[in-house]
Design goal:
By secondary structure, this protein is of the alpha/beta class. The chain is globular. Strands 3-2-1-4-5-7-6 form a 7-stranded mixed β-sheet, with helices on both faces. It contains 10 helices and 7 strands. Bound molecules: S-adenosylmethionine (SAM).
Length: 235
């Protein structure tokens, strides 16, 4: 696994130290082991885990400056993209959030085993935590992958971003369509699409795109709406 990961990262001009590779190996082994008893990932074949989970998570660093920032990962699940990014950026503080406690327990055990000092977890729904003064408008960057369609995701994620901060949505082919459906949400939530970065994951034909949004102003108090509403009735 380590050799393949290193080779694929090199193709993106990302240099992984032996310490980082060891952490990825611990994470990989724990992911597969825990997945036998807990639903963490449908992807278990080594090359696919490397490409679709690890490489997909970290390729972002070729486009966005992540050093010495505060980052929240909304709907992190088994730790994607948060854990791989945190392995590469030990000086950046990561808050990994999910509404499923057992997945966070898994992440806590990975963080412990890898001796990572830059990762915390928080259990709750984005709709609730987005109103908590400890999290609202407190992060330089919010990242999120495979949680919801863009109009919903913008309402779940933008509350955590500081004014002038960034929200990065990990997407693929559906982005264009989802952007067309997000005009109203972008305006209400005071976000604008700053840039899209697309690429194909090495050694595959997996097309990926990072949509980067800038938050231009503070959010109205009523957003996010109560739990379930953003999904049921998107802006
Ligand atoms: N981001 C991970 C990935 O890419 O592998 C996990 C994706 S998984 C399909 C979606 C995750 O988002 C689940 O773990 C779920 O519990 C979480 N989630 C969904 N809605 C949420 C909400 N409103 N607040 C917090 N977490 C949420």
């Amino acid at each position: 696994m380590k050799q393949y990961l290193q080779k694929m990262a090199e193709q993106l001009e990302i240099n992984l130290t032996s310490d980082m590779l060891s952490k990825f190996e611990i994470f990989y082994n724990m992911l597969l082991e825990t997945n036998k008893t807990m639903n963490l990932t449908a992807i278990t074949e080594m090359h696919e885990v490397v490409l679709k989970h690890f490489i997909d998570s970290i390729a972002l660093l070729n486009y966005i400056e992540l050093s010495n920032k505060t980052v929240i990962d909304v709907g992190t699940g088994a730790g994607f993209p948060g854990i791989p990014l945190a392995i590469l950026f030990p000086n950046t503080k990561f808050m990994l959030m999910d509404s499923l406690q057992k997945r966070l327990k898994f992440i806590d055990s990975v963080v412990d085993a890898c001796d990572m000092k830059n990762v915390s977890t928080i259990h709750g729904r984005a709709e609730d935590l987005g109103h908590d003064v400890n999290y609202r408008e407190k992060f330089d960057i919010c990242v999120s992958r495979a949680v919801a369609a863009l109009p919903v995701l913008l309402e779940l994620c933008s509350p955590f971003v500081k004014v002038n901060g960034l929200f990065v949505s990990y997407k693929s082919e559906l982005l264009k369509e989802e952007l067309q459906q997000s005009e109203k949400a972008l305006s209400i939530l005071r976000c604008e699409l700053m840039k899209q970065y697309d690429y194909t994951i090495p050694d595959s034909d997996f097309y990926r795109v990072y949509a980067v949004f800038k938050k231009n102003g503070a959010l109205q108090k009523k957003y996010p709406r109560q739990a379930g509403k953003p999904k049921k009735n998107p802006l």
